[in-house]
């Protein structure tokens, strides 16, 4: 049988698996302008203020209700029938409650002011941001697969290059919508941070360390390879994981070294 020709290849590391993520609040609750309540009379919170649930945010005043209240009040004074008087007073109380409307927050968090004097319906007046924050990533399947079982990732602040650590807490499998929006399936990944950062801070997210992956035909016997160094061929023991026809080198080979494919002991005169 004829042997495959001897080749020499250079051992190289794979590119690092990384992507970019932005720090954002875990949730936010927008408060929008509703002109049916009237005009904003008073803003009850300040930018950056921390709130608990059901805290008052702002009060509307509706001047259009004033003529109605005055008219109903005058009618009520003229009514002599007890039942009619009770009904009129009841309606008057209901109408007066619509003169002022106070909006409360259904969630706890931190206030971020937008338009204090909005003019358009549904314009955001303010929002309540959660105190907790995460980095949300939309990972393609080929990057997601690099995570393996590891749920701790290294983070590098883009502006300062300072390192931090994050922990993957949530992974959502691709939905029909995400598949239709992308050529390949994407996973939604939430990374919790080990400390707080300003919202909008950008991080490089390192999803895995570079690896050395070489073809399995470099093997010389079971745990050996042949290194070409200083014009000589030298046998060296290695440690590796094998999958299909590829070896993931764990130890024994360094990046930049020359490795022989299809080594032949007789032809190479291996030391």
**Mean model confidence by pLDDT:** 86
Strand order of the largest sheet: 2-10-13-12-11-14
Strand content: 35-45%
Q: Major sheet: size, sense and barrel closure?
A: 6 strands, antiparallel, barrel
DSSP helix count? 5
Proportion of helical residues: 10-25%
* Radius of gyration based on Cα positions: 34 Å
Number of strands: 21
Distance between the termini: 25 Å
Order of helices and strands: EEEEEEHHEEEEHEEHEEEEEEEEEH
Outline type: rod-shaped
Poorly predicted regions: none
- Structure classification: alpha+beta
Which terms would index this structure?
five-stranded antiparallel β-sheet; 21 strands; 5 helices; rod-shaped; about 15% helix; alpha+beta; six-stranded antiparallel β-barrel; about 270 residues
Question: What's the structural blueprint in terms of helices and strands?
Answer:
Elements: E1 7-10, E2 17-25, E3 28-32, E4 39-43, E5 50-51, E6 56-61, H1 65-78, H2 82-97, E7 100-104, E8 109-113, E9 124-129, E10 133-140, H3 141-144, E11 152-157, E12 163-172, H4 176-181, E13 186-193, E14 202-208, E15 213-215, E16 219-220, E17 224-229, E18 232-237, E19 239-243, E20 246-251, E21 258-261, H5 265-268
Antiparallel strand pairs: 1-21, 2-10, 2-14, 3-9, 4-6, 5-8, 6-7, 8-9, 10-13, 11-12, 11-14, 12-13, 15-20, 16-17, 17-18, 17-21, 19-20
Helix pairs in contact: 1-2
């Amino acid at each position: 049988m004829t042997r495959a020709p001897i080749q020499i290849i250079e051992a190289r590391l794979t590119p690092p698996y990384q992507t970019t993520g932005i720090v954002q609040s875990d949730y936010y609750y927008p408060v929008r302008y509703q002109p049916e309540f009237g005009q904003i009379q008073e803003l009850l919170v300040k930018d950056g203020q921390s709130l608990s649930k059901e805290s008052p945010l702002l009060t509307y005043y509706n001047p259009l209700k004033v003529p109605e209240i005055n008219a109903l009040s005058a009618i009520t004074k003229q009514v002599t029938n007890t039942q009619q008087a009770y009904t009129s007073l009841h309606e008057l109380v209901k109408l007066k409650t619509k003169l002022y409307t106070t909006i409360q927050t259904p969630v706890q968090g931190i206030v971020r002011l937008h338009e204090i004097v909005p003019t358009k319906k549904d314009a955001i007046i303010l929002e309540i941001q959660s105190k907790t924050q995460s980095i949300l990533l939309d990972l393609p399947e080929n990057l997601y697969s690099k995570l393996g079982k590891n749920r701790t990732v290294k983070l590098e602040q883009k502006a300062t290059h300072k390192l931090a650590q994050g922990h993957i807490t949530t992974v959502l499998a691709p939905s029909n919508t995400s598949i239709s929006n992308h050529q390949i399936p994407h996973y939604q990944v939430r990374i919790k941070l080990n400390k707080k950062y300003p919202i909008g801070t950008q991080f490089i997210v390192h999803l895995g360390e570079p690896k050395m992956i070489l073809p399995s035909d470099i093997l010389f016997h079971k745990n050996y390879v042949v290194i070409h160094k200083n014009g000589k061929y030298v046998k060296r023991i290695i440690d590796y994981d094998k999958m299909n026809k590829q070896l993931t080198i764990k130890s024994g080979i360094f990046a930049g070294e020359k490795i022989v494919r299809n080594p032949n002991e007789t032809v190479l005169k291996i030391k």
